[in-house]
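Interim report to the steering committee. The following record documents the input for ATP-binding protein (416 residues).
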Amino acid sequence: MFSPFRAPDGSQKTIAEVGWEDLAQLKDMDEGFVLEFKCSDTASVRRKIPKIVASFANSRGGWLVIGIADDTKEVTPIPRPQADFSQTVGELCRRHVSPAPPFEARFVEDPGNPGQGVALVQVGEGDFPPYVADGRVEIREGSTSGPATGGELVELYGKATRRHAEVAGFCHRTVFFPDAGPAGAVPLFDLYLYRMGIRPAEAVGRAEVEGHVAAMRACFSRQGMSCHVQHAHDSLILRGTPPLRLGEAHSAIELFGDESMKLTVPAVPLDGVERTRALAALSDFGQRVPEGSVIVDARQTLRRVTLMATVLDRYVRERGLSWRGYAVVYELENMAGVILWSAGEEYRAYARRHGALFCGTTDCRSHVRYLDDGAHDSFRARQFAGSHFFEACGLPLGSHDPEDIQLVDALLSTSR
């Protein structure tokens, strides 16, 4: 993404890295396709912000700088806003722009007078145009904005369609696990995290990829695990190696150069004495379990899912990424008919009355959730993965039945 601000080594600075001294770099720049100046923060300028932001999002992105004279490029500090400037821009866009455009905003204060400074708004190229501001679709035309023509509207809709197809394609990726033997394929929980807004021109080099891997290794380590790195066609697969039982499939995180990720977690099947006890209990409840059925330890499986999703949470925080830049999908694989089991008395009591929980379908990929609408800054993969794993496996989340509520509370509390 373009930035008008440069570091001493020539690399582009992000909005978070811009300091007061960097504003001098704008002296030699003119307003244009990706840059617009406003000298003051007036009510008129506030009314124009949604249109400017939408036009950048419909084009190639850009920067709005408030506190720079558009003719002389001199810094004309504006008073520090009473409210957080980022929240102000977000509220303006929420009320006037649809869908929500991708942007970041901050106020850079004057070191000599903290009560004043310059406001920056960095807008990304939108993934799902057209972005409509107060009923109008506008794009950048030189240094201003103008209404999109019919042909331009077709191109904008086509871009959104292609982006949807990219997300759908990413969510069909498969990490290979050997078959579990006579019981069949390994039951898996998948969590797809597709990073939006990254363009091919921004492909990263080997050194940066190695930095991503080092950061992910550190996150595994902080969760008490090591990992083995395996090279794939266009990604790296980091397979967790915690102290699991011999022969168990290890969880895996597929990591891409643009920091898209796929989490794959094998369920924890019961075997040996534990399986025998579960079968005996189910028989006592009057339930016949078909021979060869897979019975999954609900507590241990959820623990594994949330443990691995916590690694993703750590990675996103430590890399300074934003959940708003991701599309999220979850899926269960090879889970049709798999029985969930817990030795807890609450589960046993529930199973006596209603039967054991089991996964009713093998193809349960969720709808895509786009987290760039500004409402998911605190999104946590750990919470999302844990609750949706159980929900997809038949746990009655959201039910008003007291028995269902008691079961949900028991399983979630004993799984921590």
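The first helix runs from residue 43 to 58. The committee is asked to note this result when reviewing the revised timeline.
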